[in-house]
Write a structure and sequence with these properties.
Blueprint: E1 2-4, E2 10-11, E3 24-26, H1 28-67, E4 74-80, E5 94-100, H2 103-117, E6 121-125, H3 130-135, E7 137-142
Parallel strand pairs: 5-6
Antiparallel strand pairs: 1-2, 1-3, 4-5, 4-7
Helix pairs in contact: 1-2
């Protein structure tokens, strides 16, 4: 049983401040609807975030595969980071590592990706994140040699 006092003193393991001047008691049965509601809401948020992650991931793959061939010095592009893991947060970047023979190409490629995705993109040389790529990454584009 949880006892809640009007002065916002909680007695018991959990509870809610209900206000007023009376002493209120909530047992586990009374708390169940609140807990079930929050569990459903949390589940729905997780499902929405996962759907968004999968959508952004597919859009990133498509954009890289469509745009990288426009830049002949781009040899390979890897997806890595939080986009490859469940639980996407709204402020997550699309993290990409690039193998490129010309550093001048990276900025126009990055700008085109951000424009196409309408999402923040972190584009770094592959060598900077080589250890991360070994743990978890996805080769998204690789130039075919003639």
């Amino acid at each position: 049983m949880i006892i809640i006092h009007a002065m916002n003193r909680l007695h018991g393991p959990t509870g809610l401040y209900l206000g007023g001047d009376t002493l209120k008691t909530m047992d586990e049965a009374a708390l169940r609807p609140f807990r079930e509601y929050h569990a459903r809401r949390d589940s729905q948020v997780r499902e929405e975030r996962e759907a968004l992650r999968l959508e952004v991931l597919e859009r990133a793959r498509d954009a890289v595969r469509r745009l990288a061939p426009l830049f002949p010095t781009i040899q390979a592009v890897y997806l890595f980071g939080s986009l490859l893991q469940p639980g996407l947060l709204p402020d997550t970047y699309v993290e990409l590592a690039i193998d490129c023979d010309d550093i001048e190409v990276e900025t126009p490629f990055w700008r085109m990706l951000e424009e196409a995705l309408e999402w923040d993109v972190l584009l770094v040389p592959r060598i900077w994140v080589a250890a991360k790529l070994e743990i978890q990454s996805e080769l998204c584009y690789e130039r075919q040699q003639p």
